[in-house]
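Intended use. Records like the one below are meant for learning the mapping from a protein sequence to its folded structure. Do not use them to infer anything beyond what is encoded.
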Amino acid sequence: MYSKKSTLVLCILSALFSIPTAAEMPLISAMKAGYDAEKLAEADAELKALYYDGLIPNYVVAAAKDGEIFYTASLGTMRIGSGSNVDIDTRYQVASMTKPLVSVVTFKLIEEGRLALDDEISEYLPMFGDMFVAPGGSLENLEEANRGITILDLLTHTSGLTYGTAVTGQGDVAQLYDELQPTNACNSSDENMDVLSQIPLVAQPGTAWNYSVGIDVLGAIIQVATGRTLYENIDEKILQPLGMESSSFQYSQEVEDSEVAAIGVSPLAGATALGRIDGSDIDWKIAHGDSPFSSCGPTSNDFKFESGGGGMTMSVRDYLVFLSMIANGGSLNGVQILDSSSVEMMQKEQVQNLNYPAMIGNNIFGAGFGIALDENDASVVDYFTWGGIFNTGFWINPSDKSVGVIATSVYPGRYNQTISLEEKFDEARFPD
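Structure written out for the chain above:
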């Protein structure tokens, strides 16, 4: 039997030697982080206006620096009309913000010698061995691909793959994506890859930037190279080490309905109204079975495909942890995820002399996310960024290693405030 004294000693020792997880991010004041709290309030004001105008159904914004959270703001509910308020721990469908996690896993496997940037993807997915190209998306002038697609091509969106008409697709090829649904959640990875490999590329590999399903293909390659699912790789190499406990792929409509903030489909997209934000004049429909994206019904384990390009649900807190690791050169609170050299490669343009489309604004692209250049000096990186189609976005400011996340849940994503927020945070930062 332990005495009171021995019990106290054990408690003290336990406290002394307990190891916090990387995800334990304390809340600090904006001033301690080097930011003007009054100016940061202006960022929230802009989002409040969008909410009360009925243009977004909810939002969560948070920012961190050096592994410490210095700003949070939120408004709205998980379901229009429900009493469950969104906050930093609410899970959102982050869509294309899944891509940076898959890119990190890829670079980790490169560090381990299990993949290489110049590997042709047909080594892992033979169905991509003999591809045809439809220049600009037109099927009238088909030609053979002059080389194989590489892993670097996938990471940099220069593979010749694309998306359907809802995103950035081109011509006849975009229509084929719409009809054949090569990233359908209801199909297995093998089934989707078989379909995708039969659709022509829109450009010769390595010659043009086209936002694409390339990271979905990369997810399939990771599964082949490791013999484990994409989620198992992400969980082992990122989520568990960093203590990210509110991140996973979406596996069923049932899970989405109970645990993830609902996607509001704006009536501006022609949807029939089912809900209204209090005080607004705009009605909303909750995206469910007739979502613009595939759904496999309301039973468990319906979704077969773990989409590396857009399939994860994550909380804002978890995404801050992930970004903080990137901002800190691949480690956080003593937990090493990537070598700093890998992070540097992700943050540099890997393919030169590309014509980027208007969709990415004043950005170029690295190997995992966008690189926003200073408007007055294109040789200076302003911040790193990307977003998701349901109005999620992030930024990493290299000048002070601060990171920020905005999450809303609306389709179409017309009111992603990532750029505006990053600018406001930049203005709120005290001079060095």
